[in-house]
Write a structure and sequence with these properties.
The protein contains eleven helices and 13 strands. It is α/β, with parallel strands linked by helices. It folds into two domains: 198 residues, NAD(P)-binding Rossmann-like Domain (Rossmann fold), CATH 3.40.50; 74 residues, Alpha-Beta Complex (UDP-galactose 4-epimerase, domain 1), CATH 3.90.25. The strands form four sheets. A seven-stranded parallel beta sheet has the order 3-2-1-4-5-6-11, with helices on both faces. Strands 7-10 form a two-stranded parallel sheet. α2 packs parallel to α4 and α6 packs across α8. The N and C termini lie far apart (48 Å). The model has no long low-confidence stretch (mean pLDDT 94). NADP nicotinamide-adenine-dinucleotide phosphate binds next to α1 and β5.
Length: 306
């Protein structure tokens, strides 16, 4: 049914906030944005606390709200945190997804799960949906296991939306700064930054990701979709584009290797995603990186460079 009843988990997070904003704009949709801590996003359907690790609470929520679709944005997305506490990472990124899938199956809801290009080993990106996953770290392994848990579940109506390097968090409260917000903060303060020159991504504006996920819902598609920007560039390349777009001192940006920056957990180097399936089947049209940075500037209320 469209407009649907939409339940969002992890609504305070970077992805969850974008999904909540986009879902709340759908005319006639009933949206319930849930989060672990106090919600920062207001929606027509309201907000509620939901700990996705609490199976009873998940069951009650799905039964009572009776969503047509659950957008499951709760998760542990910090690579180092996953490495440091693999049990907590697995509980949230894998077990809680399996619990949610079972509840969705029992109550006739669909489930869309954000996933990542970190399911790949970074030897041949950007990757298509058909490429063979081979994660390098605990985070990537947990996300691949979550995808596999969905495939193995009795729920038939599920979709995985893999994305990468999401940015665009609005001014205000966010649990953690995205790369672009972090770069703006550091460079504006005149602090030098070291960023990976050897890590390729296809950066994703958060509103575009949310639009792609809602297209999956609207067109009732299932399976794996890649949703990201179209441009493949290094983190160093992103930093230079941010400096240019926000008139900041690019001289503060120094290249480094991923291994030097993140000795605790390897990352896929040649990562990023190919979005042909989403373009052709969903009409997904992400904006260019420059347009996305313009949108970030508007959101943050900053002036354009002279
Ligand atoms: N950000 C990216 O670049 C990126 C790229 C690829 C894939 N993804 C995927 O997108 C999803 C969301 O990532 P994100 O970047 O939005 O992460 P995030 O900003 O860290 O947000 C994750 C949210 O999960 C919530 N959460 C944690 N434990 C919970 C629990 N027990 N019950 C309910 N909610 C809980 C937190 O809620 P509270 O704030 O309320 O405590 C937090 O807001 C993850 O699955 C990640 O793998 C993200």
């Amino acid at each position: 049914m469209f407009p649907p009843r939409i339940l969002i988990t992890g609504a305070n997070g970077l992805v969850g906030q974008a999904l909540t904003r986009a879902a709340a704009r759908l005319p006639g949709a009933d949206v319930l944005a849930t989060s672990l801590s106090t919600a920062v996003v207001r929606t027509r359907g309201g907000t509620a606390r939901l700990d996705v690790l609490d199976g009873d609470a998940v069951e009650r929520m799905i039964q009572d709200f009776a969503p047509d679709v659950v957008l499951h944005a709760a998760g542990l997305a910090q690579v180092e945190a996953c490495e440091a506490d693999r049990e907590a990472c697995w509980a949230l990124n894998v077990d809680a997804v399996a619990t949610m899938a079972a509840a969705c199956q029992r109550h006739g809801a669909r489930l869309v799960l954000p996933s990542t290009d970190f399911v790949f080993d970074g030897t041949a990106g950007p990757y298509a949906e058909t490429a063979r996953p081979a994660p390098l770290n605990a985070y990537g392994r947990s996300k691949l296991a979550a995808e596999n848990a969905l495939k193995a579940s009795r729920l038939t109506d599920w979709a995985v939306a893999r994305t990468t390097l999401v940015f665009g968090a609005p001014a205000g409260v966010v649990p953690r700064l995205d790369l672009v917000r972090w770069l703006i903060r550091e460079l504006r303060a005149g602090r030098p930054v070291r960023v990976a020159a050897d890590q390729l991504r296809t950066p994703t504006y958060d509103d575009d990701l949310a639009d792609g996920i809602l297209r999956i819902v609207r067109f009732r598609r299932s399976g794996v979709f890649h949703l990201s920007g179209r441009e493949s560039l290094s983190i160093l390349g992103v930093a230079h584009r941010v400096a240019e777009a926000f008139d900041l001192d690019a001289g503060l940006i120094a290249p480094a290797t991923t291994a030097a920056l993140h000795p605790g957990a390897p990352r896929p180097l040649q990562g990023g995603l190919l979005i042909l399936r989403a373009e052709s089947e969903l009409g997904f049209r992400p904006r260019s990186l420059d347009a996305a940075l313009d949108a970030v500037r508007d959101r943050l209320g900053l002036d354009a460079p002279a």
